């Protein structure tokens, strides 16, 4: 009988060992052995897509596997986030995220079935300055003139403002602007920054609050849009913004100061060893001089490398900050 128990114990150990070898530890040891997807939750052609196209090649070099960019716009970027959450927690799906998709969209839209806590920040990409962009023929050339115009038309023909979707940061800031100046404004949602800028350049929407992009600068040079002001506390030293005043240089929007960030995320329960490999690859890629130069060209202030603890602390703090901002704003089109 004792020999039988010994055989059963050995068999049990073999089963346990097999389970361990096929579990997270084995997954991490084998990672990556196939292409890694990089989800951009907006259509191709916008700033988010441009960032991914810069970062993907050096990350691929670091991982030794192709890194393929996937674009999936819709629901303020939450559609792409939900697709990542539906995939396995194995590190083969990176999500390029910002406050739009991960923090604000779940608050604004009950159809979005995700929580900020479902994701984990692996590495921050950087911060981006934000600007008020207007159609070229809008009768306002400064932030103060925009406020005066919005107030004068509030009751008869409210100004329209575009965003990348209901509940996005740019929707929140547009509503916050309207509330701050005491004027009615009408929200026009889009699936991404590229189609929004096309309509802004075509004069079909009045203004938008967005991160500064090469597309905006090109349209401004063509005379199709104009940059009224940045939301930085003081005039930016970026070459593209040296001629654009800060809202604080006027009188009517002083203190309306905001920036936004972008980072790479995975599902919260991704194995620690896989996260460590991704973090090392991303940190190395972000410090590549060519990547830094390209991101600076996209008007991104590149973040320094972060430890896992630093990344988690920052993400939790930013989640609370943006939840606080959104709690003070009633979003048109939301329950």
UniProtKB/TrEMBL annotation:
- This chain belongs to which protein, by name? Tripartite tricarboxylate transporter family receptor
What residue stretch is flagged as signal peptide?
A: 1-28
Return the Gene3D superfamilies for the record. Bordetella uptake gene, domain 1, Periplasmic binding protein-like II
Q: Does the keyword Transmembrane helix apply?
A: no
Query: What PANTHER family does the annotation carry?
Result: BLR1237 PROTEIN, TRICARBOXYLATE-BINDING PROTEIN
What family does the Swiss-Prot or TrEMBL record give for this protein? Belongs to the UPF0065 (bug) family.
The organism encoding this protein is: Achromobacter agilis
Top-level taxon in the UniProt lineage: Bacteria
InterPro entries to which the protein is assigned, alphabetical: BUG (IPR005064), Bug_dom1 (IPR042100)
Which CDD domains does the entry link to? PBP2_Bug_TTT (cd07012)
Going by the UniProt record, its keywords in alphabetical order are:
Signal
């Amino acid at each position: 009988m004792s020999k039988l128990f010994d055989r059963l114990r050995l068999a049990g150990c073999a089963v346990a060992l097999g389970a361990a070898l096929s579990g997270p530890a084995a997954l991490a040891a084998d990672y990556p052995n196939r292409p890694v997807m990089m989800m951009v939750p907006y259509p191709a052609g916008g700033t988010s897509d441009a960032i991914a196209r810069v970062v993907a090649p050096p990350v691929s070099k670091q991982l030794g596997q192709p890194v393929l960019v996937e674009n999936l716009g819709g629901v303020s970027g939450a559609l792409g986030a939900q697709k990542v959450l539906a995939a396995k927690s194995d590190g083969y799906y990176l999500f390029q995220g910002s406050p739009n998709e991960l923090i604000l969209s779940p608050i604004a839209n009950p159809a979005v079935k995700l929580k900020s806590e479902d994701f984990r920040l692996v590495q921050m990409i950087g911060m981006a300055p934000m600007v008020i962009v207007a159609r070229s023929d809008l009768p306002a050339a400064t932030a103060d003139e925009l406020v005066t115009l919005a107030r004068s038309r509030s009751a008869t023909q409210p100004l329209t403002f575009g965003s990348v979707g209901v509940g996005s940061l740019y929707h929140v800031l547009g509503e916050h602007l309207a509330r701050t100046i005491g004027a009615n404004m009408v929200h026009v949602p889009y699936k991404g920054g590229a189609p929004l800028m096309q309509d802004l350049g075509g004069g079909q929407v009045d203004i938008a609050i967005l991160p500064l992009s090469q597309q905006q600068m090109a349209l401004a040079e063509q005379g199709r849009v104009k940059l009224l002001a940045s939301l930085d506390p003081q005039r930016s030293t970026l070459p593209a913004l040296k001629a654009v005043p800060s809202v604080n240089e006027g009188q009517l929007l002083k203190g309306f100061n905001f920036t936004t960030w972008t980072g790479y995320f995975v599902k919260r329960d991704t194995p620690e060893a896989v996260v460590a490999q991704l973090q090392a690859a991303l940190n190395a890629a972000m410090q590549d001089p060519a990547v830094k130069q390209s991101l600076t060209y996209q008007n991104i202030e590149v973040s320094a490398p972060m430890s896992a603890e630093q990344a988690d602390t920052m993400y939790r703090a930013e989640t609370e900050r943006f939840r606080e901002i959104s709690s003070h704003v009633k979003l048109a089109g939301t329950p």
